[in-house]
């Protein structure tokens, strides 16, 4: 087995999602065949996911929560803001999931999106419930008078 000359990485070490930490090469002999193994060690740069996924989704959930502070008579705008936020969240989830490797298990980012979508669904349901209770209360007041 002959040794390979030193392998050099000439590209940039900081990529969008990963950083190249180390490159090693080894000569191997397997069933009378020689080969060279080049191993590239990558580190996931979590700052990319925080800035492009977690912060925007958290802001969308906060925007939906702020709908509870809208005027109670403005049901249409309250629900529209929440539903639009949920739609954007679902689109962002699809976009992020398409760029990640497929696995048979749930990743942390999947759990985060599921939590956000369920939270938004609960908020829309609460807005509808609040509106229904408000109109039922108004109806009861009218029948008493």
From TrEMBL:
Residues 53-137 form the Neurotransmitter-gated ion-channel transmembrane domain. The chain crosses the membrane at residues 46-72, 79-100, 112-133. Keywords: Membrane, Transmembrane, Transmembrane helix. The keyword Zinc does not apply. InterPro entries: GABAA/Glycine_rcpt, Neur_channel, Neuro-gated_channel_TM_sf, Neuro_actylchol_rec, Neurotrans-gated_channel_TM. The keyword Transmembrane applies. One of its GO terms (molecular function) is chloride channel activity. GO terms for cellular component: membrane. Pfam families: Neur_chan_memb (PF02932). PANTHER family: NEUROTRANSMITTER GATED ION CHANNEL. This is Neurotransmitter-gated ion-channel transmembrane domain-containing protein. The lineage of its organism: Eukaryota, Metazoa, Ecdysozoa, Arthropoda, Crustacea.
